[in-house]
From TrEMBL:
Pfam families linked to this entry: TPR_19
Keyword vocabulary terms for this entry: Signal, TPR repeat
TPR repeats: 141-174
Species assigned in the record: Oceaniradius stylonematis
Protein name, entry field: Tetratricopeptide repeat protein
SUPFAM superfamilies reported for this sequence: TPR-like
Gene3D superfamilies for this protein: Tetratricopeptide repeat domain (1.25.40.10)
Entry's Gene Ontology molecular function annotations: identical protein binding
Signal peptide: 1-32
Amino acid sequence: MSKPIGSSNLHRPARLGVAVLLAGLLAGCANSNLTTGSIGPAGNKPIAQLSGTELQSALASHRRQYERNPNDKSVAIAYASVLRMNGANEQALAVMRKAAITHSRDKQVLAAYGKALAGAGQFPAALDAIQRAQDPTQPDWELLSAEGAIYDQTGRPDEARQRYEKALQIRPNEPSVLSNLAMSHMLQGDLPTAERHLRTAVQQPGADSRVRQNLALIVGLQGRFAEAEDIARREMTPDQAETNIAYLRQMLAQQNAWNLIEQEDRQNAAN
């Protein structure tokens, strides 16, 4: 059996898990007024905090708005954001590609287009769009964090962390940036440092369920499974908690599977 890619037991499965988590954070990097709104019974709750049922309701609501006003940039950006939260990355990209053609010089549209490209795994194009949306004279911390996440996804951790540090200089202790920084360390197998950043992140007023989900994953990967499940259940509806715990168990099972593969590889090498 061929040896898995990566120098440690943590590296390969961590990359598989973090791809989902970082993509989620990219989806949440848009300006806050574009990721909130009155969505039926959910009120003004941020998209990241919606349950599965609420997300479906939000998707239907934003689809109707988009069908009525397809050229309205705010409507397109909000619709694409909800699509990404529902896992419809290719459809979100199609929406934002159309918006980028209509509003080719609009910085908000370019930024959202870059996030949609990243969600669809088109990282070079995403990086180009986000960098074109950035104003070097007045850097946007959200775009810096999104840029860092793309660098992490493409195996450039030093450049990623430079972007996170710049973002934190503009917005100290911003939980979404700290979470992305933590997952950057996770990709390199440095779980204690990742946990330290996430502990700081979850204490901040703006921390949402994605930050706690990342912390639960990091704690679980260090073998503290009961604590990880407890974190995944906090401040969530039962449905949200069960979804997070199911995802956590999937990631931890994946971790264990790769550990077993590496053990077998070592045994084969010794024979």
